[in-house]
Amino acid sequence: MARKSLSKKLRFEVLKRDSFQCQYCGASAPNVLLQIDHVTPVASGGTDDILNLITSCFDCNSGKGARELDDDAALVKQQNQLQELNERREQLELMIQWKEELSQLKETTVDRIAQYWSKRVGGFTPTETGLQTLRRLAKKHAYSDVIDAIDTAVDIYVKYDDDVPTHESIETAFTKINGILRTNDVAKSKPYIRDLYYIRGILRNRGYVNERYVMELLEEAAEADIPIDDLKSYAARCSSWTDFRETVEDLIEADNADAM
């Protein structure tokens, strides 16, 4: 009965494992024609198991015939392969263990954040949806940053009725945590940003404000070194958004003219 030929997939796996190099003489493709050789010949009971297959160039394979090589190159190759496979298995197990521990650590971090939130708002615990939100925040931000944002949200937005935080204000404060974190991140590179938000709040309280343009204008003013206290004063004294905008634009234009 004719011998069954090796599948393309198996041949490729052997070639890939052996780096497309003859394991007897070291010749590499495309300089030589590579073939797949049986370490233990099929005539001697060798199988098509990948451990019994090795990459050989045409010349080495033709000279070998139906006999095993006298040297121990194939045996050493098998031993090295087994050692490598064992090392890979151990590394995979360690990686899985590390990921499991990391996942547990992340969940522990989320639990601690949830407990801190509950403590700050009189025992109200986050819902499952709230926990999902905290998981996303803990994934993007440092633990200490999330805790600081919770403190800010509670201090600003939680209202009390007979020393008991109201449910509505607790929900509001929770929704503000993500925005506070974003603001804090921006503040690391733009330390004046909180003051600009404060100024925007003053303008909002005075009536209409161009939400799309106001922060752009305020940042341009800050970068032009117009004192923040002056901007606050202008916002408090102006009669309208238009009045404030024109005043600040004139200051920026004057600064640009001085720089020319």
Automatic annotation (TrEMBL):
**Superkingdom of the source species:** Bacteria
Which InterPro entries does the protein's record reference?
HNH (IPR002711), HNH_nuc (IPR003615), NA-targeting_endonuclease (IPR052892)
What SMART domains does this protein's entry cite? HNHc (SM00507)
What GO molecular function annotations does the UniProt record carry, in alphabetical order? endonuclease activity; nucleic acid binding; zinc ion binding
Q: Which residues form a coiled coil?
A: 75-108
Keywords recorded for this protein, A-Z = Coiled coil, Endonuclease, Hydrolase, Nuclease
Recorded hits in CDD domains, A to Z, give: HNHc
Query: Mind telling me which Pfam families this protein's record contains?
Result: HNH
Supply the Gene3D superfamilies for this chain: 1.10.30.50
Q: Which residues are in the HNH nuclease domain?
A: 9-62
Q: What is the recorded name of this protein? A: HNH endonuclease
**Can you name the source organism?**
Crateriforma conspicua
